[in-house]
Amino acid sequence: MDEIETRQPLDLSDPAPGGHRTMASSVYGRLRRDILEGTLKPGERLPIDALRARYGTGASPVREALNRLVAEGVVALEDQKGFRVPPISRADLLELTRTRCWINEIAVRESIARGDAAWEERLVVAYHRLWRAPRTSPEGANRVSPEWERLHREFHTAVIAACGSQWFIEAFQTLFDRATRYRHLSIIPAPERDDMAEHRAIMEAALARDTAEAIRLLNAHISLTAEIVAGAERVLPDVAEAKARKRAAPAD
Fold first, then answer.
1. Taking the CA of residue 181 as centre, how many other CA atoms within 13 Å lie in the half-sphere pointing to its CB?
2. Quick one: how many helices (H) and strands (E) in the chain?
3. What is the 3-state secondary structure (H, E, C) of 12-60?
């Protein structure tokens, strides 16, 4: 199996005094987390002075972190308006999901074709660790545990890890981040859903080298999540507006 470097978990430890690079990395990690977890809301302005106060640092590390996040698409930069948290919409979510499914069509096929015993072991271990991890955060039942999020990413990465293309891995990581933000902004209970059973079925199909089934299950898994989020009137403004118009429309 070709070894592919994957995006490592963020180091959010306190920076050493006087270390600009470490400080910039810390601000980058904390700001990135606050956006992806929905603490900073879609469309919210990100003025440098406010971020300096929020993260207790100077302007230079903040600017460096913002520019890195703009390059990743996690922060939007608008002419004459400065930095903002990117907006969200149902149309964007559906396009994001469709693109993730397209990538899966190739990445899963190549990973199953090229994967060896080490890849199989990585996938099994990733599933087992995810299965054992508590999903909710100690901070509250409506918050997902950061450890669960890390292991969730590792499982999905493991499925395509043997695809042999760093470009596919990078595209996967970027789109996974975007989808993570939508999930955190919704946090909609779905008691009828057993997502660990879905993960297990994906793993078993991949290990059985059933490429078509693995792709179908993985795409159904992320599409179901998107459908749940897309129904969140309180999350997606275009959904809320459409429902408000329907309610206001005169009855036939």
1. 28
2. 10, 4
3. CCCCCCCCHHHHHHHHHHHHHHHHHCCCCCCCCECCHHHHHHHHCCCHH
Residues 6+ apart with CB under 8 A from 199: 127, 130, 131, 155, 221
Length of the chain measured in residues:
252
Kindly state the tokens that stand for 231: 């129904």
Collapsing DSSP to helix, strand or coil, 7 comes out as coil
Q: Which domains does the chain have, with CATH numbers?
A: 20-84 (1.10.10.10), 90-237 (1.20.120.530)
Amino acid at 239: V
Per-residue pLDDT of the chain (252 residues; tens, 9 = 90+): 444 444 444 333 333 344 455 888 999 999 999 999 889 999 999 999 999 999 999 999 999 999 999 998 899 998 878 999 999 998 999 999 999 999 999 999 999 999 999 999 999 999 999 999 988 766 655 677 889 999 999 999 999 999 999 999 999 999 999 999 998 887 655 557 889 999 999 999 999 999 999 999 999 999 998 988 887 655 566 554 555 555 555 554
> β-strands 136-137, 76-78: how paired?
unpaired
Helix, strand, or coil (residue 227): helix
Q: At what angle do helices 117-132 and 146-160 cross, to 10 degrees?
A: 160
CB count in 10 Å sphere of residue 29: 16
What SS3 class is residue 142? strand
DSSP-derived 3-state class of residue 233: coil
